Structure formats: C-alpha cells, structure tokens
Amino acid sequence: MATKVADPAGQEMPKCRTSPTAFDALTQYLAANPQNRPTHSHKFDVSRSDIYVEDRWQPIFAEMRAKGPLHYVPESPFGAYWNVVQHKAIQHVESLPELFSSSWEHGGITITDPDWEQELAEGEERFQLPMFIAMDRPKHTGQRRTVAPAFTPAEMKRMEVEIRQRTAELLDSLPEGEVFDWVEKVSIPLTTGMLAILFDFPWEDRHLLTYWSDWAGDTELSLARDLDMQRREILHEMAAYFQQLWMKKANEEPSPDLISMMIHSPAMNQMDPLEFMGNLVLLIVGGNDTTRNTMSGMIHGFDKFPDQRKLFEENPDLIPNAVQECIRYQTPLSHMRRTATEDTELFGEQIKKGDKVVMWYLSANRDETVFDNPDKIDITRENARRNISFGYGVHRCVGARLAELQLRLLLEEMHKRRMRVHVAGDVERVRANFVHGFRKLEVEITHF
C-alpha cells in the first residue's frame, strides 16, 4: 500500500513509485526471458516493435500501400488483424463508428488484445480501462463534451502567455557549447508541465505524469504476464493519487482544470474507479506522448533536412505550416484500432464481426497519393494540414489545438533566439508499435 506524504497545502497525497521505467522493465524482462520474445512470421505483421525502434518501417508500409488499402495478418502476438494503410481508407473506416467500434467492450483502441481469461484466479475479473476515446456514442459524446471546454480557442488564447513564458524560460536555461539530451531537457519538461497545469496537479510531483504515461502507453507490456500485472499496480497507484485530488476538489468551487470539469459534469461525476483510471490514462498519454515526441521529431527532422531548417530560419511566417508538416512527418501515435460490429465488405475484402481493424496513421501520413515526396519534410507543403495524426471523425483528438499551440510557441521562441539545434550524439527511438517517438536525442545548440 502506498505511504502518505503531505503536500505544501497540507493535503496528503499517496507517495508513488518512479522506477523502473516501462522501457527498462521490458528490456530487463526480455533479456532474462529470451524465449518469451514475440515472434512475427507474416510479411506484413507491422505490430513488431523492432521496425520502429530501428526506423525501418517505411518500405514495409509503402509496399502495402502499393498493393491496396487493406491487408490481412492471420497470426501475430496480438492475434489476427487487418492493416488499413491508405489515407482515404482510414478516413472511410473512421467515418463509420457504429460499424467499426472503438469501445473497450469490443477490444478498445490499440492492437493489444491479450486474453488471460483461462489464467484468471477464482473471483478475479478482467482488467479493462474504459475511457471516452474507447467508447461509442452516445456515452462517448457526453464525456468528450465534458473535457472539450478545456481546449476551445478562447482557452488556447488564455493559456498562450503562460505557455510562451514557460517555453522561453526553459530555452534560456539550456546549456550551450555542450551536448545534452533534448528529450530530457526540453520535450519532457514542457509537456509534463502542461499536463500539470491542465490537471492543477501538484507541481513538485509532476514527474509522476511522465512515469505513468510511459507505463500506460507501452503496448508490448501486455505480452508479458508479470509486466502486465506490474502495470496494473502502477495504474492503481496513479488512480489513488488522482482520487485524493478528486476529493479535495469536490469541496471547492468549479475551476477550469480537467479534474474539476469531471467532478461537475453529470456525464462523468459518477464514473466507477476503472473508468476514472481509463480517462486519466487517455488524457495523460494523449497530452504527454504525442506532443513530447513531436517536439523531438521536429528537431531530428530539421537536422535530417537542413534545407528545411534554413527555410524555417529565413521565413518565420512558415512556422504554423511547419508545425502541421512536422506533426505529419513524425506521427506520434502509430495506429488506432477498431473492431467490426457485424459482417461487412470493406474495399473488396470480407470483414467478419469481431475482426480487429488497425488503422496505421503513420502510413496514411506517408501516402504518396496525398502527399508528394512524403518521406521528406517540406514546411511549404500546401496540404500539410491534411495529416491524420490526430485521427478523423468523431474521435479526432480533443486536445489537438493545444498540441499545435505548444509546438508553434516552441518554434517561435527558438527562432526569436536564433537557436539552431544539431543532432550531436545518440538517437534512441521508442520500442513500441503504438507510441512513435524518441527516448533520447543528444543535441548541441548553435545560432544562425
């Protein structure tokens, strides 16, 4: 059971673990149990994390796109599934939410589909995390409307001054003339700080948000029973911490933070513990991993394509479009999953009720029929805003405007300081098929 520590205001908060990281735990587990490494035999089984950590996924998806919009994988560590790989095809699937369900009751939104039913102890229940992105209408609509006011244009305008100030202060604190990790020094602090503000989260404990996000967003942990159980324990600790915040805020006047919005919403104030936990996971992973990895991806991309970095330096008016192009190029979440609710035909293929349909956003964002020369960053790209990184239709990311704002302000403040960032050391990518990003990006600052 978690011990208690008092915060400066006197409110006792659970003291939560902060190690090991999810990545370290999985690495150690596989090193100790090599026989448990997942095997991938099908040519188009893109659930394998090695192709993302080694950044060699592009030709596999390009081959699939050339062959058609839909491809069946009969066997994988996550079961059988369909790959949807073309831009228009993903929009089509997203536009039919009743036929292709997001609901956790049908399997949820990731390719992960572990089935431990035969291993459950007597009286033990399956561990499901309902969250509004993993719900169908009408329940999805009510819960989404609850949090949507935190991301309106008026709220973005209200938060801009504070975000800009935090970004400026952080950039001014960066070391010059030495190599440092951009992920650790910039991407994580900026996104974790933003999450803490959105939740009105105790500032001194904001590092917990990064820790919880990493454990919640790593789909491969589900393939190892021990690690899956460890993740459950960590998420329960997270829920206990937030329950304390909930109880504190329940006795206060309504405020614009997300916890207060949930408390004062008829659609969300009666959530059971697992649903509360699920929505926290959604908001933390959605608000942390996506923006964080695009902040790193921008720097890596500009270093890879120095002509585009020069354009950015010479034309600050291109920054808003550069944000859209970098979001397209990075695609911070690789996929979303849907489940067929009835037998149907899709692009000439017969889909059975219960089939898992996986929409690969990072493939759609490299679709040659939509984006010319898609494997290159082009900050003048006229249709960069057509990227599908935030999804499409009723489940399009509710926090997209906030992500765009944070990225725009980062580029603006870098330009104001004439800051040029070079990759100058190790580059380590995330080993995962869901979150697509960087664990480490060693850089050095110069000026233009």
TrEMBL record:
GO terms for molecular function: heme binding; iron ion binding; monooxygenase activity; oxidoreductase activity, acting on paired donors, with incorporation or reduction of molecular oxygen. It comes from the Bacteria. Keywords: Heme, Iron, Metal-binding, Monooxygenase, Oxidoreductase. The keyword Iron applies. The keyword Metal-binding applies. Cytochromes P450 are a group of heme-thiolate monooxygenases. They oxidize a variety of structurally unrelated compounds, including steroids, fatty acids, and xenobiotics. Belongs to the cytochrome P450 family. This is Cytochrome P450. It comes from Allopontixanthobacter confluentis.
